[in-house]
Amino acid sequence: MHTVLIVDDEPNYQIVLSELLREEGYEIFTAGNGEEALKTVAETDLDLIITDMRMPGLDGLGLLKAVKTSNPDLPVIMVTAFGEVEKAVAAMKAGAYNYLTKPFNNDELVLNARKAIEHYSVLRENSRLREEMRHRASFANMVGRSKKMQSIYNLIEKVSPTSTSVLITGESGTGKELVARAIHFNSPREKAPFISINCAGLPENLLESELFGHEKGAFTGAIALRKGRFELADTGSIFLDEVAEMAMPLQAKLLRVLQERSFERVGGNQTLHVDVRIIAATNKDIREEVDRGNFREDLYYRLNVLHIHLPPLRERADDIPMLAAHFVGKFSRELNKPKLEIAPETVRFLTTLPWEGNIRELENTIERAAILCSGNLILPEDVQPDRVSDKDGMQWLDGFDVEQAIPANTPLPDVLDGIEKKMVLTALERADNVQTKAAEALGITKSLLQYKMKKHGLFKR
Description:
The protein is an alpha/beta fold. It has 20 helices and 14 strands.
């Protein structure tokens, strides 16, 4: 329950405001002057202060300044008499959330109180998340408190002190390199190099040279000896991202490094010995790649001593508010927008999206919104305007009788799931089970359609 302190030297005003706000579900505290109010502030976790400007002793402006010294974020709404414009301006400059002029409309007071409390809730949540993320600093800025992420943190803590090879799987954008870095920087190798390479980003001959180095004259363009990533990572860790894209000949050479801790540079005959921990990652089903003959089974078992699977963001929606706050803080600093915030309704909207690009897509979305938003508050229309419903396209709802179509007391999640399943089934039937056509008809991607088919058990066996 949110708590509100009402400060006024007139008992009648205290009573009226108290009853009004109690009806809104707030817990009310009262004080007859500024000094009494400060005692309550020190003893109570408040969400809002509503104070009269004119009071004997410590007046409203003095109270405001004292409160802002101890808690700059706590919102204070000032109540002024008609004609006290200069005092109201002074209060706003001193940090008041807003001011109301007597006599004021009750609805206006309730609305201001609700907005002030929501604003403070966002500030406090952001502060709490920043503190929690600082405690997780050793996990390389990994963010999340869901059960799935807690399980991953536990795995990282257990495997980090060892030199065991780790295989990290998960969709693109789920943070596989963050996990790899967390393992390295929580290990005895933390002061040694952490070297990362994307195996899908280079053709086979260049990837071999990048990994193992080359001798001068080994091939056209090899004008000097070059050390490879394994040499550079000696005594540290090497992260092989998208390892399933590696060609078979390179897989054999990698297997030797895992078995013997030795290799030769391209064009060389000197055997080099290294002490490197290998952390690999892929967004493919690597066991399936083994079955298809695209990946060596012996290498798979060597890499997969310990397996960490990162769930897609849609399966850990509980972490979206924390991730959003993290990225708002990041871009607030990078864009020099110290007052940047995200509205609660925006966070709620973010949790409803499928996030096919996972955390990377969410980060890009917050960055774009931070740049484009008007002022310092990120609203739902700022985060992904193309995904916000067009009211003009929803006119068919005007004639829709909810009570007639949906049985009374049916839980909203059941209704939404039922409608979604029916629409997916209908689209598939009309498209003769051609998923690309069905996805197009539904206005979603094929991967999202497949996710919904799996969710509703619609894959044919």
